[in-house]
Amino acid sequence: MAISLSPLEQDLTCPVCLEIFTDPVILPCSHSFCRKCLERSWQEKLENNCPVCRCRPSDHFSPNLALRNTCESYLQQKRVRDSDPQRCSLHSEKLILFCVHDEKLVCTQCVSQDHQNHSFCSISKAASPRKEKLKTHLTSLEAKLEIFEKFKDISDQEAAHIKSQAQNIETQIREEFEKLHQFLMEEEEATIAALKEEEEKKSQRMKKKIEQLDEQIMEISSRVTELNIILKNDALIVQDFKKASQRAQYTVPDPELESGALIDVAKHLGNLSCKVWKKMKNLCPYFPVVLDPNTANPSLSISADLSSFSPSAKNLSLPDNPERINAYSGILGSEGFSSGTHRWEVVVGDSEDWIVGVAAESVSRKEACLSLPEHGFCCIWRDADEISAGISMNSSKTLMTKPTIQRIRVTLNWEKGLVTFTDPHSNKDLYSFDLTFTKKMYPYFNNDGKNSLKVLPAYIKF
Question: What does the pLDDT look like over 262-284, one tens digit per residue?
Protein backbone atom coordinates (compact mmCIF):
# COMPACT_ATOMS: atom_id res chain seq x y z
CA MET A 1 0.00 0.00 0.00
CA ALA A 2 1.46 3.34 -1.04
CA ILE A 3 2.21 5.88 1.68
CA SER A 4 0.83 9.38 1.02
CA LEU A 5 3.41 12.12 1.31
CA SER A 6 2.95 15.76 2.11
CA PRO A 7 3.72 18.27 -0.69
CA LEU A 8 6.95 19.22 1.09
CA GLU A 9 8.04 15.58 1.38
CA GLN A 10 7.27 15.03 -2.30
CA ASP A 11 9.53 17.97 -3.21
CA LEU A 12 12.33 16.58 -1.04
CA THR A 13 12.10 12.99 -2.33
CA CYS A 14 14.61 11.53 -4.77
CA PRO A 15 12.74 10.14 -7.82
CA VAL A 16 15.11 7.14 -7.94
CA CYS A 17 15.29 5.81 -4.36
CA LEU A 18 12.05 7.52 -3.22
CA GLU A 19 13.77 8.66 -0.02
CA ILE A 20 14.64 12.14 1.24
CA PHE A 21 17.61 13.41 -0.77
CA THR A 22 21.08 12.47 0.46
CA ASP A 23 23.89 14.65 -0.94
CA PRO A 24 21.64 15.95 -3.76
CA VAL A 25 23.05 17.01 -7.14
CA ILE A 26 21.33 18.88 -9.99
CA LEU A 27 21.53 18.31 -13.72
CA PRO A 28 21.34 21.01 -16.40
CA CYS A 29 17.74 19.93 -17.04
CA SER A 30 16.96 21.12 -13.45
CA HIS A 31 16.16 17.65 -12.11
CA SER A 32 17.82 16.66 -8.84
CA PHE A 33 18.90 13.24 -7.52
CA CYS A 34 20.95 11.71 -4.72
CA ARG A 35 24.53 11.63 -5.89
CA LYS A 36 24.82 7.85 -5.43
CA CYS A 37 21.46 7.20 -7.09
CA LEU A 38 22.48 9.13 -10.20
CA GLU A 39 25.91 7.49 -10.41
CA ARG A 40 24.39 4.01 -9.97
CA SER A 41 21.78 4.73 -12.66
CA TRP A 42 24.43 5.78 -15.12
CA GLN A 43 26.57 2.73 -14.35
CA GLU A 44 23.69 0.30 -14.80
CA LYS A 45 22.38 1.82 -18.07
CA LEU A 46 25.81 2.67 -19.49
CA GLU A 47 24.48 6.05 -20.60
CA ASN A 48 24.34 9.42 -18.89
CA ASN A 49 20.69 10.30 -19.42
CA CYS A 50 18.50 12.06 -16.89
CA PRO A 51 16.48 9.28 -15.15
CA VAL A 52 13.37 11.51 -15.31
CA CYS A 53 13.27 13.35 -18.65
CA ARG A 54 15.81 11.19 -20.51
CA CYS A 55 17.61 14.22 -21.91
CA ARG A 56 21.34 13.79 -22.29
CA PRO A 57 23.18 16.38 -20.19
CA SER A 58 26.88 16.73 -19.98
CA ASP A 59 28.78 14.13 -17.94
CA HIS A 60 29.03 16.56 -15.09
CA PHE A 61 26.55 17.56 -12.41
CA SER A 62 26.60 20.13 -9.65
CA PRO A 63 25.86 19.86 -5.93
CA ASN A 64 22.43 21.24 -5.03
CA LEU A 65 23.43 23.01 -1.83
CA ALA A 66 20.10 24.72 -1.25
CA LEU A 67 18.22 21.43 -1.55
CA ARG A 68 20.73 19.66 0.69
CA ASN A 69 20.30 22.29 3.44
CA THR A 70 16.51 22.10 3.12
CA CYS A 71 16.56 18.29 3.43
CA GLU A 72 18.83 18.33 6.47
CA SER A 73 16.63 20.95 8.15
CA TYR A 74 13.49 18.94 7.38
CA LEU A 75 14.96 15.68 8.72
CA GLN A 76 16.11 17.36 11.91
CA GLN A 77 12.64 18.79 12.52
CA LYS A 78 11.08 15.41 11.77
CA ARG A 79 13.35 13.68 14.30
CA VAL A 80 12.40 16.19 16.97
CA ARG A 81 8.71 15.82 16.16
CA ASP A 82 8.82 12.00 16.11
CA SER A 83 10.69 11.86 19.42
CA ASP A 84 7.97 13.78 21.26
CA PRO A 85 4.84 11.57 21.61
CA GLN A 86 3.26 14.17 23.88
CA ARG A 87 2.37 16.47 21.02
CA CYS A 88 -0.94 16.36 19.23
CA SER A 89 -0.59 14.70 15.84
CA LEU A 90 -3.31 16.99 14.43
CA HIS A 91 -2.33 20.36 15.89
CA SER A 92 1.31 19.82 16.98
CA GLU A 93 0.46 21.33 20.34
CA LYS A 94 1.37 19.94 23.76
CA LEU A 95 -1.09 17.29 25.05
CA ILE A 96 -2.05 18.68 28.44
CA LEU A 97 -5.47 17.19 29.35
CA PHE A 98 -7.14 13.80 29.51
CA CYS A 99 -10.63 13.50 28.02
CA VAL A 100 -12.59 11.23 30.37
CA HIS A 101 -15.35 10.71 27.80
CA ASP A 102 -13.04 9.54 24.96
CA GLU A 103 -10.20 8.28 27.19
CA LYS A 104 -7.47 10.04 25.26
CA LEU A 105 -5.01 12.89 25.64
CA VAL A 106 -5.94 16.17 24.01
CA CYS A 107 -4.46 19.63 23.38
CA THR A 108 -6.27 22.96 23.78
CA GLN A 109 -7.39 22.99 20.14
CA CYS A 110 -8.81 19.49 20.47
CA VAL A 111 -10.91 20.65 23.43
CA SER A 112 -12.54 23.46 21.47
CA GLN A 113 -12.95 21.55 18.20
CA ASP A 114 -13.72 17.87 18.90
CA HIS A 115 -14.38 17.49 22.64
CA GLN A 116 -16.94 20.13 23.51
CA ASN A 117 -19.02 19.37 26.62
CA HIS A 118 -16.67 16.52 27.60
CA SER A 119 -15.17 16.02 31.05
CA PHE A 120 -11.43 16.50 31.50
CA CYS A 121 -8.85 15.90 34.21
CA SER A 122 -5.10 16.23 34.57
CA ILE A 123 -2.82 13.61 33.04
CA SER A 124 -1.32 12.69 36.42
CA LYS A 125 -4.79 12.09 37.93
CA ALA A 126 -5.77 9.83 35.04
CA ALA A 127 -2.47 7.97 35.21
CA SER A 128 -2.53 7.16 38.93
CA PRO A 129 -5.02 4.22 39.03
CA ARG A 130 -3.67 2.85 35.76
CA LYS A 131 -0.13 2.97 37.08
CA GLU A 132 -1.07 0.79 40.08
CA LYS A 133 -2.67 -1.81 37.81
CA LEU A 134 0.37 -1.85 35.55
CA LYS A 135 2.64 -2.26 38.58
CA THR A 136 0.62 -5.33 39.60
CA HIS A 137 0.96 -6.73 36.09
CA LEU A 138 4.67 -5.97 36.14
CA THR A 139 5.17 -7.85 39.42
CA SER A 140 3.38 -10.89 38.01
CA LEU A 141 5.36 -10.70 34.80
CA GLU A 142 8.68 -10.44 36.64
CA ALA A 143 7.74 -13.51 38.72
CA LYS A 144 6.89 -15.34 35.51
CA LEU A 145 10.25 -14.32 34.06
CA GLU A 146 12.05 -15.69 37.13
CA ILE A 147 10.27 -19.05 36.74
CA PHE A 148 11.19 -19.33 33.08
CA GLU A 149 14.80 -18.36 33.75
CA LYS A 150 15.02 -21.01 36.49
CA PHE A 151 13.73 -23.70 34.16
CA LYS A 152 16.08 -22.43 31.45
CA ASP A 153 19.03 -22.95 33.83
CA ILE A 154 17.89 -26.51 34.62
CA SER A 155 17.41 -27.23 30.92
CA ASP A 156 20.90 -25.92 30.15
CA GLN A 157 22.30 -28.24 32.81
CA GLU A 158 20.36 -31.20 31.40
CA ALA A 159 21.58 -30.43 27.89
CA ALA A 160 25.20 -30.36 29.08
CA HIS A 161 24.68 -33.58 31.07
CA ILE A 162 23.26 -35.35 28.02
CA LYS A 163 26.48 -34.57 26.17
CA SER A 164 28.57 -35.75 29.12
CA GLN A 165 26.51 -38.93 29.44
CA ALA A 166 26.89 -39.69 25.76
CA GLN A 167 30.67 -39.27 25.92
CA ASN A 168 31.01 -41.45 29.04
CA ILE A 169 28.70 -44.14 27.69
CA GLU A 170 30.58 -44.27 24.41
CA THR A 171 33.87 -44.73 26.27
CA GLN A 172 32.45 -47.56 28.37
CA ILE A 173 30.90 -49.22 25.33
CA ARG A 174 34.24 -49.20 23.56
CA GLU A 175 36.01 -50.66 26.60
CA GLU A 176 33.48 -53.50 26.68
CA PHE A 177 33.91 -54.26 23.02
CA GLU A 178 37.70 -54.18 23.23
CA LYS A 179 37.50 -57.38 25.30
CA LEU A 180 35.78 -59.19 22.43
CA HIS A 181 37.06 -60.44 19.09
CA GLN A 182 37.10 -58.64 15.76
CA PHE A 183 33.87 -60.16 14.48
CA LEU A 184 31.99 -58.20 17.20
CA MET A 185 32.84 -54.84 15.61
CA GLU A 186 29.59 -54.68 13.70
CA GLU A 187 27.60 -55.19 16.91
CA GLU A 188 29.68 -52.53 18.65
CA GLU A 189 29.09 -49.96 15.95
CA ALA A 190 25.38 -50.78 15.87
CA THR A 191 25.15 -50.18 19.62
CA ILE A 192 26.99 -46.86 19.34
CA ALA A 193 24.71 -45.86 16.47
CA ALA A 194 21.70 -46.44 18.73
CA LEU A 195 23.29 -44.25 21.37
CA LYS A 196 24.03 -41.53 18.80
CA GLU A 197 20.47 -41.69 17.55
CA GLU A 198 19.06 -41.25 21.05
CA GLU A 199 21.58 -38.53 21.85
CA GLU A 200 20.63 -36.67 18.69
CA LYS A 201 16.93 -37.13 19.31
CA LYS A 202 17.07 -36.02 22.93
CA SER A 203 19.58 -33.26 22.25
CA GLN A 204 17.36 -31.91 19.46
CA ARG A 205 14.33 -32.10 21.75
CA MET A 206 16.25 -30.28 24.49
CA LYS A 207 17.59 -27.76 21.96
CA LYS A 208 14.05 -27.05 20.77
CA LYS A 209 12.90 -26.70 24.37
CA ILE A 210 15.75 -24.32 25.20
CA GLU A 211 15.06 -22.28 22.06
CA GLN A 212 11.40 -22.05 23.06
CA LEU A 213 12.39 -20.96 26.58
CA ASP A 214 14.76 -18.38 25.06
CA GLU A 215 11.93 -17.02 22.92
CA GLN A 216 9.55 -16.91 25.87
CA ILE A 217 12.15 -15.29 28.11
CA MET A 218 12.88 -12.72 25.39
CA GLU A 219 9.17 -12.03 25.01
CA ILE A 220 8.63 -11.65 28.77
CA SER A 221 11.77 -9.50 29.09
CA SER A 222 10.51 -7.32 26.23
CA ARG A 223 7.19 -6.85 28.00
CA VAL A 224 8.92 -6.05 31.26
CA THR A 225 11.06 -3.44 29.49
CA GLU A 226 8.02 -1.93 27.79
CA LEU A 227 6.11 -1.66 31.05
CA ASN A 228 9.07 -0.12 32.85
CA ILE A 229 9.32 2.53 30.12
CA ILE A 230 5.59 3.25 30.21
CA LEU A 231 5.53 3.45 34.00
CA LYS A 232 8.04 6.29 33.87
CA ASN A 233 5.73 8.45 31.77
CA ASP A 234 2.20 9.27 32.92
CA ALA A 235 1.16 10.30 29.46
CA LEU A 236 2.23 6.98 28.00
CA ILE A 237 0.42 5.16 30.81
CA VAL A 238 -2.84 6.83 29.87
CA GLN A 239 -2.25 6.75 26.16
CA ASP A 240 -1.20 3.10 25.95
CA PHE A 241 -2.98 1.68 28.99
CA LYS A 242 -5.14 -0.89 27.24
CA LYS A 243 -2.32 -2.11 25.04
CA ALA A 244 0.08 -2.20 27.99
CA SER A 245 -2.40 -4.16 30.10
CA GLN A 246 -2.80 -6.71 27.34
CA ARG A 247 0.97 -7.01 26.90
CA ALA A 248 1.40 -7.49 30.63
CA GLN A 249 -0.98 -10.46 30.75
CA TYR A 250 1.32 -13.25 29.59
CA THR A 251 -0.80 -16.36 29.86
CA VAL A 252 1.59 -18.99 28.51
CA PRO A 253 1.66 -21.86 31.06
CA ASP A 254 4.77 -22.21 33.21
CA PRO A 255 7.27 -24.74 31.87
CA GLU A 256 7.49 -28.18 33.42
CA LEU A 257 10.38 -30.61 33.55
CA GLU A 258 9.73 -33.74 31.56
CA SER A 259 10.60 -37.23 32.70
CA GLY A 260 12.80 -39.20 30.37
CA ALA A 261 14.76 -36.14 29.16
CA LEU A 262 18.14 -37.73 29.84
CA ILE A 263 19.75 -40.51 27.86
CA ASP A 264 18.55 -43.95 28.94
CA VAL A 265 21.90 -45.13 30.28
CA ALA A 266 20.64 -48.57 31.22
CA LYS A 267 19.36 -49.25 27.69
CA HIS A 268 22.85 -48.82 26.27
CA LEU A 269 25.01 -50.19 29.08
CA GLY A 270 22.73 -52.49 31.03
CA ASN A 271 23.37 -56.14 30.28
CA LEU A 272 25.50 -55.09 27.31
CA SER A 273 27.77 -58.11 27.53
CA CYS A 274 24.76 -60.39 27.89
CA LYS A 275 23.18 -59.01 24.73
CA VAL A 276 26.36 -59.85 22.85
CA TRP A 277 26.65 -63.13 24.72
CA LYS A 278 23.39 -64.39 23.21
CA LYS A 279 24.88 -63.99 19.78
CA MET A 280 28.20 -65.57 20.75
CA LYS A 281 26.59 -68.57 22.48
CA ASN A 282 29.04 -68.17 25.35
CA LEU A 283 28.69 -67.32 29.01
CA CYS A 284 29.19 -63.81 30.33
CA PRO A 285 28.00 -61.82 33.34
CA TYR A 286 24.30 -61.05 33.48
CA PHE A 287 23.01 -58.71 36.17
CA PRO A 288 19.35 -59.27 37.07
CA VAL A 289 19.27 -55.67 38.35
CA VAL A 290 20.97 -52.80 36.59
CA LEU A 291 21.30 -49.57 38.56
CA ASP A 292 19.79 -46.43 37.03
CA PRO A 293 22.22 -43.48 37.34
CA ASN A 294 19.41 -41.05 36.45
CA THR A 295 17.78 -41.89 39.81
CA ALA A 296 20.95 -41.81 41.93
CA ASN A 297 21.47 -39.31 44.72
CA PRO A 298 24.36 -36.98 43.78
CA SER A 299 26.31 -38.27 46.80
CA LEU A 300 26.68 -41.72 45.22
CA SER A 301 29.35 -43.01 42.86
CA ILE A 302 28.26 -45.78 40.46
CA SER A 303 30.47 -48.38 38.82
CA ALA A 304 30.93 -48.42 35.05
CA ASP A 305 28.93 -51.64 34.64
CA LEU A 306 26.04 -50.20 36.73
CA SER A 307 26.20 -53.10 39.22
CA SER A 308 27.61 -51.40 42.35
CA PHE A 309 27.69 -48.05 44.09
CA SER A 310 29.32 -46.36 47.05
CA PRO A 311 29.34 -42.97 48.75
CA SER A 312 31.34 -40.38 46.81
CA ALA A 313 33.95 -38.09 48.36
CA LYS A 314 31.89 -35.11 47.20
CA ASN A 315 28.49 -34.52 45.67
CA LEU A 316 28.48 -34.85 41.89
CA SER A 317 27.13 -32.06 39.72
CA LEU A 318 23.99 -33.69 38.31
CA PRO A 319 20.77 -32.22 36.89
CA ASP A 320 17.74 -32.25 39.19
CA ASN A 321 15.64 -34.34 36.80
CA PRO A 322 12.28 -35.68 38.07
CA GLU A 323 13.61 -39.26 38.37
CA ARG A 324 16.52 -38.36 40.64
CA ILE A 325 16.43 -39.08 44.40
CA ASN A 326 17.66 -35.96 46.18
CA ALA A 327 16.39 -36.32 49.74
CA TYR A 328 18.28 -39.48 50.80
CA SER A 329 21.21 -41.64 49.62
CA GLY A 330 19.17 -43.94 47.44
CA ILE A 331 19.17 -45.38 43.93
CA LEU A 332 16.68 -47.50 41.98
CA GLY A 333 17.12 -50.30 39.53
CA SER A 334 16.61 -49.36 35.90
CA GLU A 335 13.70 -51.78 35.42
CA GLY A 336 10.47 -51.89 37.39
CA PHE A 337 8.25 -54.96 37.73
CA SER A 338 4.46 -55.14 37.53
CA SER A 339 4.18 -58.92 37.13
CA GLY A 340 6.11 -62.13 37.64
CA THR A 341 8.72 -63.30 40.12
CA HIS A 342 12.15 -61.67 40.22
CA ARG A 343 15.25 -62.41 42.28
CA TRP A 344 18.60 -60.72 42.85
CA GLU A 345 21.43 -60.85 45.38
CA VAL A 346 23.23 -57.92 46.93
CA VAL A 347 26.67 -57.99 48.52
CA VAL A 348 26.44 -55.83 51.65
CA GLY A 349 29.77 -57.00 53.11
CA ASP A 350 30.78 -55.38 56.37
CA SER A 351 28.88 -52.15 55.72
CA GLU A 352 26.96 -51.08 58.82
CA ASP A 353 24.51 -48.62 57.27
CA TRP A 354 22.47 -49.87 54.29
CA ILE A 355 18.91 -50.43 53.10
CA VAL A 356 17.88 -53.08 50.56
CA GLY A 357 14.45 -53.90 49.15
CA VAL A 358 11.90 -52.65 46.64
CA ALA A 359 10.17 -49.31 46.15
CA ALA A 360 7.06 -48.23 44.27
CA GLU A 361 7.53 -46.00 41.25
CA SER A 362 5.62 -43.24 43.07
CA VAL A 363 7.85 -42.99 46.17
CA SER A 364 8.91 -39.52 47.27
CA ARG A 365 12.24 -38.58 45.74
CA LYS A 366 12.56 -34.89 46.62
CA GLU A 367 11.44 -35.08 50.29
CA ALA A 368 12.90 -37.30 52.99
CA CYS A 369 10.83 -40.27 54.16
CA LEU A 370 11.34 -43.54 56.02
CA SER A 371 11.67 -46.79 54.07
CA LEU A 372 8.31 -48.15 55.22
CA PRO A 373 5.37 -49.80 53.42
CA GLU A 374 3.14 -46.77 54.04
CA HIS A 375 5.66 -44.72 52.02
CA GLY A 376 5.87 -47.27 49.20
CA PHE A 377 8.89 -49.30 50.43
CA CYS A 378 9.39 -52.93 51.44
CA CYS A 379 12.89 -52.99 52.91
CA ILE A 380 15.23 -54.32 55.54
CA TRP A 381 18.17 -52.33 56.82
CA ARG A 382 21.27 -52.53 58.93
CA ASP A 383 21.95 -49.86 61.54
CA ALA A 384 25.18 -50.47 63.47
CA ASP A 385 24.90 -53.98 64.98
CA GLU A 386 21.27 -54.74 64.06
CA ILE A 387 19.43 -55.79 60.93
CA SER A 388 15.76 -54.81 61.07
CA ALA A 389 12.64 -54.82 58.91
CA GLY A 390 10.62 -51.60 58.61
CA ILE A 391 6.99 -52.50 59.31
CA SER A 392 5.30 -49.19 60.14
CA MET A 393 5.91 -45.75 61.62
CA ASN A 394 5.55 -47.16 65.11
CA SER A 395 7.04 -50.59 64.60
CA SER A 396 10.15 -52.34 63.29
CA LYS A 397 11.31 -55.90 63.75
CA THR A 398 14.86 -56.81 64.70
CA LEU A 399 15.97 -59.71 62.49
CA MET A 400 19.57 -60.13 63.57
CA THR A 401 22.06 -58.68 66.07
CA LYS A 402 25.79 -58.50 65.49
CA PRO A 403 25.24 -59.92 62.01
CA THR A 404 27.92 -61.71 60.05
CA ILE A 405 25.77 -61.93 56.91
CA GLN A 406 27.57 -60.74 53.77
CA ARG A 407 24.86 -61.11 51.14
CA ILE A 408 21.11 -60.55 50.92
CA ARG A 409 18.84 -62.26 48.40
CA VAL A 410 15.68 -60.35 47.49
CA THR A 411 12.74 -62.19 45.92
CA LEU A 412 9.75 -60.24 44.57
CA ASN A 413 6.54 -62.06 43.67
CA TRP A 414 4.38 -59.25 42.33
CA GLU A 415 1.12 -61.17 41.91
CA LYS A 416 1.23 -62.53 45.47
CA GLY A 417 2.46 -59.25 46.94
CA LEU A 418 5.43 -60.98 48.54
CA VAL A 419 8.90 -59.56 49.11
CA THR A 420 11.19 -62.08 50.79
CA PHE A 421 14.70 -61.46 52.16
CA THR A 422 16.97 -64.51 52.45
CA ASP A 423 20.48 -65.31 53.70
CA PRO A 424 21.80 -67.14 50.59
CA HIS A 425 24.62 -68.78 52.61
CA SER A 426 22.21 -70.64 54.89
CA ASN A 427 19.18 -70.31 52.58
CA LYS A 428 17.25 -69.05 55.61
CA ASP A 429 14.50 -66.51 55.13
CA LEU A 430 15.05 -63.39 57.22
CA TYR A 431 11.71 -61.69 56.68
CA SER A 432 8.77 -61.47 54.25
CA PHE A 433 6.38 -58.64 53.47
CA ASP A 434 2.90 -59.81 52.49
CA LEU A 435 1.09 -56.92 50.76
CA THR A 436 -0.99 -56.13 47.68
CA PHE A 437 0.86 -54.35 44.90
CA THR A 438 -0.96 -52.01 42.53
CA LYS A 439 2.04 -50.12 41.17
CA LYS A 440 5.26 -51.01 39.42
CA MET A 441 7.93 -51.96 41.96
CA TYR A 442 11.63 -51.17 41.52
CA PRO A 443 14.71 -52.69 43.21
CA TYR A 444 15.84 -50.15 45.81
CA PHE A 445 19.19 -49.59 47.50
CA ASN A 446 20.43 -47.07 50.04
CA ASN A 447 24.00 -46.75 51.28
CA ASP A 448 25.23 -44.37 53.98
CA GLY A 449 28.19 -46.57 54.95
CA LYS A 450 31.78 -46.42 53.76
CA ASN A 451 31.74 -49.63 51.71
CA SER A 452 30.06 -50.29 48.38
CA LEU A 453 26.92 -52.33 47.76
CA LYS A 454 27.02 -54.61 44.72
CA VAL A 455 24.44 -56.55 42.75
CA LEU A 456 25.75 -60.03 41.93
CA PRO A 457 25.53 -61.43 38.40
CA ALA A 458 23.19 -64.36 37.81
CA TYR A 459 24.31 -67.53 36.07
CA ILE A 460 22.24 -67.76 32.91
CA LYS A 461 22.65 -70.33 30.14
CA PHE A 462 21.12 -69.81 26.70
Answer: 999 999 999 888 887 777 766 57
